[in-house]
Model the fold of this input.
Amino acid sequence: MRISRREFFRDAGLAAGIALVGRSVLAADEAVWPYAPYKTADVIICEGTNYKTLLSRAFDKLGGLKKFVKSGDTVLVKPNIAWDRPPEYGATTNPFVVAAVVELCLGAGAGEVKVYDNPCDNCRRTYDSSGIADAARDAGAKVSYVDTALGKTVQIPNGVSVKKAEVYADVLATDVIINVPIAKDHSLSRLTLGMKNLLGILVENRGRWHQRIDQKLVDLAQAVTPTLTVIDATRIMTANGPSGGDLSYVKRLDKLIVAQDVTAAEAYATTLFGLAPTDLGVVKEARRRGFGTADLERMNVSKLTA
Amino acid sequence: MPPGAWKWLRRLSQVVFFAVACVLVAVTTYPLRPGVPYDVIARFSPLLAVSATAASRAFIAAFWPALIVVALTLLVGRAFCGWVCPVGTLVDAGDFVIAKATRRRRRESETPRHRRWRILLLVGVLVFAAFGIQLAGWFDPLSLFPRTLAASIIPYVAMALDKVTAAAYRVPAWEGTAAALRQRFVAENVALFGGHILVTATLAVLILLGLARRRFYCRYVCPTGALLAVVGWGSPFGRRVVGVECAECKRCRDACRMGAIGGCGETTAQAECTLCMDCLSACRRGAVSFGFGRTRPADNPTTWAPAISRRDFFIAAGASLAAAPAVLATDGRVQRDLFLVRPPGAGEETDFLARCVRCGECIKVCLTQGLVPTHFEAGLTGLWTPRLLPRKGYCEYRCTLCTQVCPTDALRPLTEAQKKKEVIGLALLDRTRCLPWAKNEDCNVCEEMCPTAPKAIESRGRGRLKPHVIADRCVGCGICEYACPVEGPAAIVVVGDRDRVYVAGGRAGGRRYRGGAGVNKEPNRLELFGGKA
Done:
């Protein structure tokens, strides 16, 4: 097939035009996303067992917890309480880490600190087995079950894969969300870290969230962005995730990763498993959209020990 | 003590025992507290004791409380029926409401020959028990009561509570109360339950029988009452009428809810009297009294024995003897429903059926509410035994609650370590409906949920990961079926009977099960398990 010079210029011009218009449409979309993309991210790696001191100093490096938690604020500390396993199996967040975060929030002047998760196993057992209910309650938090009758639809107009989510209404009423996931292996998304942990605020059937899970996780994180993320890597589960079930899967690292940018925390945490950030679909997706900082070289990493 | 006081004392006793029984069933829930005898209600029944012991060919020491009832009955007659039995109290309450509603003066004639029905039932239950078929729990009040609460009343109440509190959320003033109630009682999805209709219908029939006679169930149906009638017939304690005072006004006879008073009020059927003391206050001349040493037998010509005629006995025993082997040969224990998943600790099916008294305690305590009473999935004689419906509620991997509350150890008590190894079924993957297999979509929720270490469901494949079940790791807990996001029936289902499943490339008990399984002897189900290994 031959085309004339004239046809060639016409088609080429058309294609270029479409590309330009398309680009600007995409750019317009990005402009209304409900977050400001981070240019660089401060990521603080804490090492040690004195969690409260470590976290206190880490928050100070981010400008002090008082910068995020205003006096009288309602704070949600969202750990992973998904599985009916004792804490040493690394399937749920370390209860001492949860307690430390709760105490620091109360110390920073929070009016109320709430702790809950919508688990996979039976909630009564997971709350007890994980040790989180007791530890958080002792630290002064209000521990409750997620009530699936109290859902509120959150519109995600810029969502790529989900346009709305049924979120526990209480989450939307809190002023500050501190995301405290545990770093562990996952059968579908390879690892489960910061953004996957946010699925616990949903009250709808989460089955459908497993198709194109990476896109959906970023969609949700954009709609309900945690104020701070503390990834618990005191123990990491290296295999048979997310439920684990054998101590041989668990590796003790005594590390905590603190960041304001959930993507950055998540991206850095992949290195604990000997992976690169882009090995994780959800980090790749966040990077593609410019949601947070996914590149290690653009992170401002500092280390603390205590 | 004035005569009327005894009646109130009896009512007080009834209310107390009824309340204790209700509370005991209601609190049979996570977390169980050590030392609380959650399963004690059924263990008070002498009939369940005899029947379970005979059917299972094992001495079940847990039934020692039944000896208390037997001793009490030997001493004072059927006080248990009138003062303690929660179903008796329920029937009394029903009769009271019926009397108020119908405004009928209840002057029923009593036909003693109809009392043979419950004895025929007793004979039948015992003969079947001798053949290893446990039927006592269907009729026994101390099984019926907890079962009805567990499988019918409490789920209804919970569902109502769920709906009402959810609605109350819309009223700002009630929000706090509603939230507190839901945190305490709801927390899980309680709106789904199964197997309840027949249990509820039985309760309704039981109460509505009061339209025909007061305490109809106790007079004509209850085989446990029949057993106690035999035991307590000769008890030294009973009703006495002082002849010179008696005006033969028949007030006591009409007042008797058991129809135990004959003649013009002067005779008593000792085997029927539940010592309710109604006649005491009905008598205006103080002619009635209760005490040790009964009236002279000569004054008691119609004290009918709790017996049946020789002819009836032989008919009942003969019919049961003929029926029991036939039932054994044809019933579900030979070919049970493939999808009948038993709770952990149930062990071998025949032994389980012989021991299970259908009290429903396991159904009550189940955290996920996946346990429901069967209809006929385990055969006719398996009615009201527990089964797991994984789509409704799975078996929590580390949970042993149901095995802790079984009165007869039909579910053997398991430690957490034993429970994790307890195999109750096998998950079969339906590749024609599974999202990764059939629609080439991501999913693998089943693998995510699988609690075993290492997981019994593994995703494999180049490109799209697809789930595979590894049979010898699967314990059949059903959390995969519960969580499967496919609409309607799950794309992964648990079968209870591993031996009847065949697996492409090897038996289910073999090293690998690749998902392309079919089901023996159930050709109509074959299409469910499409695909090839």
